[in-house]
Amino acid sequence: MNTATIAHDGHGHGDHHPSGIMRWLTTTNHKDIGTMYMTFSLLMFFLGGLMILLVRAELFQPGLQFLKPEFFNQLIGNHALIMIFGALMPAATGFANWQIPLMIGAPDMALPRLNNWGFWLLPPAATLLTLPFILEFFGVGDGALATGWTFYAPLSIQGGIGVDFAIFAVHILGISSIMGSINIIVTIFNMRAPGMTMMKLPLFVWGWLITAFLLVITLPVLAGAVTMLLMDRHFDTHFFIAAGGGDPILFQHLFWFFGHPEVYILLLPVWGLIPHVLSTFTRKPTYGYKAQVYSFIAIGVLSLVVWAHHFFTAGMPVPALLYFMYSTMSISLPLAVLFFCWVATMWRGAMTFETPMLFALGFIVLFGIAGLTGLVLADVAADAQYHHSYFVVAHFHYALFTGGIMGVMTGVYYWLPKWTGHMYSEKLGKLHFWLTVISFNLTFMPQFFLGLAGMPRRIPDYALQFAEFNAISTVGAFILGFSQLIFAWNIWKCIKGGEKAHAKVWEGAEGLEWELPSPPPHHSWEVQPKVA
Amino acid sequence: MSSTHASTNEGQHYFVPQPSIWPPVLSAGMLTLALGFILKINHFGVGPLFMLSGAAIIIFVLFKWFGAVIYENQTGAYSDWEDRSFRHGMVWFIGSEVMFFAAFFGALFYTRNISVPILGSLEAAHAGITLWPGFAEGAWNVVGVGPKGTAFTPVSAWGIPTINTALLLSSGATLTWAHWGLLKDNRFQLKFGLFLTVLLGAIFLGLQAFEYHHAYTELGLTLGSGVYGATFFMLTGFHGFHVTLGAIMLTVVLLRSMSGHFDAKRHFAFEAVAWYWHFVDVVWLLLFVLVYWL
């Protein structure tokens, strides 16, 4: 092979890049693509948040105040889809794009054009999800997906044009995630610096590797499920229609075969980055590296075989109920190993409490509540009462807001100085943390009690006895929502300027990414570092 | 996966392509196609126009994008390092395809072994209510008369499907024979083997189309024939679609072989398409046994 050809065709040797919008449309650079993912994620975070604030406003008092029930239904389903597919997954992929090449000493992602395609599939998907809202305004169709994010048949078979839009949005999101995951797997296997063996990989990279496996395994099944749904809706098939021998519960099985691993898809990248933050701010090496890697793998495998605990009450033979109960509960074993390692990392450390550390600590405590309430839900007998109540809503928001979103915020504050070259405002960061944690609990803690008292989810009206807790929850939600403006403002300020960040932003930080200047050059690790 | 992979890259430069407009254009094409399809199935007149434009954009981009990759390859941009990325990538892509088919096989197992027998065991069946002939017995391959009430006959495994099995198995053999030709630098064997493979694939598709026609016009078996018809047509249909894609890719590889591309050492595209073709072959064997035969 001729190196002169590489210099001519490849990057880095006097090549010039388009500027303006074309830079972002055509980029093949992992940092540019990572930035686009993070920006998109932040926008969707606010869009999804706006939707649910409308819902919470409606739920402030019993009775119907602002929203038609049909519109209420559209808002809750799209809130979930936008937060999961629009905010959390792109945020995690943004981290992967920015950090994996820096952390493993790679010149870029393995398949850069595919990488860019993965991002540019997201705006079309978001368009498909939100377009029906606008079309209805102009008298076309009857609004967006109104089935909840789970598309359960037979409701979704009877639904309007919004279901079709959502089906194709899911297809496009699926292609995006599968392409992104393939790229990440290939990058991790093929692009590591010399000496960077698998058991030296940073835990964040391990977390993402398992995530990518789960995406490649489960997203095609979701694609198959919504394809069957589309066929049932428009092409006369009977996959989910009992009159032709099909079964609506088949849809639940297919959906949750994807849907349960999806929870770990959202959480594993966070579990990967938390140990880095803990180790940095306690100035101690990560406790139990191997144990954490094996736990990631165990949780990844287990997450594929527990899906039916999402519909215990739908009707299943008792042996199936028992199997899904025990397998679900067994996930708490590797998860407990992770919690132990996180706490043991901090034990006797020289701790300081910068914003990322605060978020990491908040994550551990609040995500612990998600784990413990999850154990309760996994109990078949208890679940008969909790199913489809606000207890579930509170549980998965403790899992996905504190476990997912607060984990993402941890990572953003931790790596933002590395990406921008500037320190964020520690004062604003701490304000953001405390407002978020307090208002989050104000919002969701009451929902546990609402659920225990029997308030069903996804209903725009409720009985009078639920009024006080709902009012508290709505107040919390609005504080939570508006606190996030501080987050956006802090990020914006940090991009625009501020105190210069050192190459090694944090005193206790370890890893390849801290050997590069802040911000790292457009092309980093063109010559791979050697890892001892 | 071993650390030896990484250590062979020492001092090398990895090929990171220049900025490219094709990824976002491809996405725009897919958005247009999806919008068109949604409009069409909801009976808006502009649907097909959108679909055609979207499809045209997608095909155009695929030409340009793959063209760029082939050009880079031919001008020596890729070393073993990049080659490994492509190989890993293709393996995981086929893995995701396996899981796509798994969803439909899962639906087949579930309906055949769980939902249909349970429906048959309902009290309604014993009270003389019948949704289709054989309803009370929970019999599988007559379920599907369904709400429309038309009877159908399943496709027999021992006619066209048997011939198709032979065709696809032979095509796997001819493809391997072509690969041997490439390895020992026998260009005729390479091209003739590829040609035979494409031909066998095309005959397979022709027979499959004939079988569908037969099913719709003479057997009364349609997509609407209950869950039997649904699983039958969706599984065989998606398989046929993948055979079509595979045949197109094989044709490209054949044309590239005729232009002198590939040598005994460097022929990732050939191997990737061959893996894909064998994958489609294995899916067919499962279809033959589980859908047609048993």
Characterization of the model:
The complex is a heterodimer of chains A (532) and B (294). With 532 residues, chain A is mainly α. Chain A contains 18 helices and no strands. In chain A, helix 14 runs parallel beside helix 17. Chain A is globular, with a radius of gyration of 23 Å. Chain B has two domains: 18-77, Helix Hairpins, CATH 1.10.287; 79-293, Cytochrome c oxidase, subunit III, four-helix bundle (Four Helix Bundle (Hemerythrin (Met), subunit A), Up-down Bundle), CATH 1.20.120.80. Chain B has nine helices and no strands. In chain B, helix 6 runs antiparallel to helix 9 (268-293). Chain B is globular. At the A-B interface, helix 1, helix 2, helix 5, helix 6 and helix 8 of A face helix 1, helix 2, helix 4 and helix 8 of B.
Task: Give keywords.
heterodimer; A: 532 residues; mainly alpha; Cytochrome C Oxidase, Chain A; 18 helices; B: Helix Hairpins; Four Helix Bundle (Hemerythrin (Met), subunit A); 2 domains; disordered N terminus
Any guess at the CATH architecture of the largest domain in chain B? Up-down Bundle
Largest interface: A-B, 97 and 80 residues
CATH class division of chain A: Mainly Alpha
What Rg of chain A is obtained from the alpha carbons, in whole angstroms?
Answer: 23 Å
Unreliable runs of chain B, pLDDT <50, ≥5 residues? 1-7
Corresponding CATH superfamily of chain A: Cytochrome c oxidase-like, subunit I domain
Estimate what percentage of residues of chain A fall within beta strands: under 5%
What share of the residues of chain B does DSSP label as strand, in percent? under 5%
- Report the total helices of chain A: 18
Computed CA radius of gyration of chain B, to the nearest angstrom: 23 Å
Global structural class of chain B: mainly alpha
Q: Give the % helix of chain B.
A: over 70%
